[in-house]
Automatic annotation (TrEMBL):
Keywords: Membrane, Transmembrane, Transmembrane helix. It comes from Micromonospora sonchi. Residues 26-149, 159-292 form the EamA domain. It is a multi-pass membrane protein. This is ABC transporter permease.
Length: 314
């Protein structure tokens, strides 16, 4: 019997204090993903992007399956396979292709167009009409990320550019479809994350073995790097991410992804002796302003005004 998807918890999102806490929790996901650039370049063996994605996703998914003891059934089997491919398998593989063929800043800037893709798909699939406010701030966010990471380096490798844009597109599709389908009854964020991480990792196993083979013997640094990416960058982060998708407006939530390149740049400055310029400082201001502005809609402002009245009358 097919399981009906549960409805998003709109009640939580309607209370500003609750929304702020939920947004902060969801933001921990792209913040942790921002560490991927540093961990990959400094700790992992080079030349194994697909293998690294499998090691990152599959163990985390299997652990969540063991903890939740819940497997997808009926229509949720193919839905989870599709969502896992989009959110985990295809996105990470395309992101690594872009990162290998383009300067990291160019790749990050291309992926930063994701909120614009989400706005368009949300209109088509969720009937969420894109507002000029969020579309405008989406463009500002792309400019901000570009100022942070480009540093005057521009590459026109066609395959890399297409891979970066495709990475933004597939993750935007995964976010919107996850929101559209909701969750089956009795399945929480940990269950959904377990399904998608496992199936997304399994999809890439044949590709990893065919094109890259097994990585060399791992030293302690590589083991530590993979452990960080799997536990923090996959298991914990995707549970928080899918928890947010179920309760926050999908377009506003997609802007949180702009935190990843910002975190990557800060870590490069702190640990790799990379310099920060005034233009990058301006980029940080634009990116952070964009993330905040995307959460402040007229409805949210009206809710803030209503809270004292509601509390007084209770």
């Amino acid at each position: 019997m097919a399981q009906a998807p549960s409805r998003p918890d709109a009640g939580n999102a309607s209370v500003p204090g609750s929304t702020l806490g939920l947004t902060a929790l969801t933001a921990t996901a792209p913040i942790s993903w921002g560490t991927t650039y540093l961990v990959t370049t400094e700790f992992l063996p080079p030349g194994y992007p697909i293998v690294s994605t499998v090691i990152r996703a599959l163990p985390a998914g299997l652990i969540l399956l063991a903890v939740t003891r819940n497997l997808p059934r009926g229509q949720w089997l193919w839905r989870s396979l599709l969502l896992g491919t989009l959110n985990i398998g295809a996105f990470n593989a395309l992101l690594f292709v872009a990162a290998y063929r383009l300067p990291g800043g160019v790749a990050a800037t291309l992926v930063a167009v994701q909120p614009l893709f989400v706005a368009g798909l949300a209109y088509l699939l969720l009937s969420e009409e894109p507002t000029r406010w969020r579309v405008g701030w989406g463009l500002v966010g792309v400019v901000g990320v570009g100022l942070i990471v480009l540093r005057g380096q521009i590459s026109f490798d066609l395959v890399g550019v297409l891979a970066g844009i495709a990475a933004a597109g597939v993750m935007a599709s995964g976010i919107v479809l996850t929101k559209r389908w909701g969750r089956p009854a009795g399945a929480g964020a940990a269950t959904i994350a377990g399904w998608q991480l496992t199936l997304g990792g399994l999809v890439l196993v044949p590709l990893a073995l065919s094109f890259e083979g097994l990585p060399p013997a791992l030293d302690h640094r590589a083991i530590g790097g993979y452990a960080w990416l799997s536990v923090v960058g996959a298991l914990l982060s995707y549970v928080a991410w899918f928890h947010g998708i179920g309760r926050l407006p999908v377009v506003a939530m997609s802007f949180l992804a702009l935190l990843s390149p910002a975190v990557a740049t800060i870590l490069g400055w702190l640990f790799l002796d990379e310099s920060l310029t005034p233009w990058q400082g301006l980029g940080f201001v634009l990116a952070l302003t964009t993330i905040a502005a995307a959460q402040l809609t007229p409805d949210a402002i009206r809710n803030l005004v209503r809270i004292p009245t509601t509390t007084k009358g209770a």
